[in-house]
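notes to self, project folder thing:

trying the whole complex as one job this time. last attempt i did each chain seperately and stitching them together was a nightmare. two parts in total, labels are on each line so i dont mix them up again. if this works i'll redo the older ones the same way
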Amino acid sequence: MKSKGNAYFLIIIMVIMLAIIIQALRMEFYTSKLLPLILGTTVFILAAIGLAQEFMAGHKPEAPPDTAAPVDVVDKVEPGLRQHLPIASWIFGLALAIYLFGFIITIPVFIIAYMKSQGVRWLITILSAVLMTAFIYGGFAVLLRVELYRGLLFSWLGS
Amino acid sequence: MPLAEALEALKFYADPMMWLMMLAAVMITLTLGIIPGVGGMLALSLLFPFILIFPQQIGLVFAMVLITVGAQGGAITAILLNVPGTTPNAATLLDGFPMTQKGEAGRAIGAAQVSSGLGGIAGAIIALAMVPLILPMIMAIKISDMVLIIIMGLCFIGALVGRSVIKGLISGGLGLIVALIGFQPLTGILRFTFGLPYLWDGIRLIPIAVGLFAIPEMIGIAVRGGSIARTAAPLKGMSQLWEGARDVFRHWTVFLRSMLITYPIGIIPGIGANVSTFVCYAQAKQTSKHPELFGTGIVEGVIAPETANNGKEGGALLTTLALGIPGSVDWALIIGVVWMMGITPGPQMMTEHLPLSLSLLYGLVFANIIATTTCFFLAPQLAKIAFVPGAILVPLVLVMVFVGSFSSGEFYENIIVTLVFGVLGLAMKRFGYSRPSLLLGYVLGFLFESYFFHALRIYGPLFFTTPISLSIIILTVAVFSYNPMRKKIMARRMAKKT
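result (full assembly):
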């Protein structure tokens, strides 16, 4: 098999497409079900072909040719899943903190926590946190009149 | 060229705000273009909410500048630091960095900026000249033809971006399926909402865009660690820069040949700068009197790919405006911007909204002038941006990602969508699937279904038998068959030789 990860990815796609096809068959009107059936079936078949190619190919390293990423900066040896865990934790932690405490509290705390964990100097850390919070508040809350999410805690306290 | 519309388009540039926003867009995209992994597409997806508060012409020009001139900033890192700022700059470093090693960094940068800027201007002027020629063709396009045009666009982008046709088509198909979520206008039925009111209006564009493009890139930067560059080559004065600028005129045949190659490539959907820069570099080498010098630091090796970088944008813009199919993958986001402004992307851009479309072509000319001038005089200062550590960049961009995502409708669920598409984007990047194809499929999905059923009702099941539709089918099949047939012929020739 060329790439286990890609094989699992394709299997997940096939399972999702099957679910879409089953859901589509239950829809009432043909105009509602036609396109989901056509697309679901097409992508399912394409994924199956891709999976077959994975099994038929020998052991060759998978080249990631996504053109949204610079050629030279894409690592020649792909970092393993473990190396992604720290940053993934930070990202999910940020999302959770926003949910609980809202944007205005979370933004400066996250910036300071992340930068200090990476060894950035205090001056740059504080400056970045202050400027970014000011930009978000000024740009989104004032200019775009977006009501920034207050968080579960402050919504509960406010109610 | 329809004169009245051309003059009306020019009037948009009497507004000082237009120039201010163009300058801002140039500075933002040049700055971000210097940092590998962070380019115009990321900038556009982060700045989406701001674009929509401006008048249509200003917002669209701002968005267009973000994705078209960023490669000029990327050329600076490619030449000085041997790291391509954006993917299309990968060909520039073949001779750009060796020139730096020979002490000719300024000459390389001067040549890169002038050839890129002139290429962009020439491409825009050619596109302007072509407008009167393509208008009659656009008038002939029917709804049924639009169905095939969308399929062709998705097939081209899916197949020509990246190395795997299957993966590209899967990406496009996934995008089309995502577009099906929510309320279907034709029947009033809710599809794939799983009882969640949030999904009744479908999934929003901004959370998808920032999830797909920003999160995987920030994860990549965080995992790599450090800053992009650690040592810099000095840039010695302005005299070398002017020397490089003169080189473009000395080697005007290299420039011209690159334009002749890159402009048609820009017109064809899906084939972007990544292909055209290397093709132009290869042709410059093949036609040179000294091909053995390429790769050792020769200025023609910088002029050819950099001309291609911006030279293709005029053609790509024309395809995007005329057909509603992105000329290259970056333009997929522009289609999203057009759609969010309440304009239907496609032939109507060249009929009902012709002044707006022409203003974009003018904007391409002006933006290239501004970007070239800026890069020319500020190259050493801009290069310092590559030293910004990932530890500073990553948290700032992540915060922007989540705020930008939330601001689209003010739903916390947008952040969950961003996370889901962030994971999907990471997997797609790792396994070589085309993220722009997915986004394009999503953006065009709504139109596709509408055109499809209208075509069925008006023309019946044989709606695809019009001359234009049949031509599109033949062209698509020809493009898909070309590579396998070429491989078969080459294999037969090899077998005969042995």
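what i see at first glance: Chain A touches chain B through 72 residues (CB under 8 Å).
need to look closer tmrw
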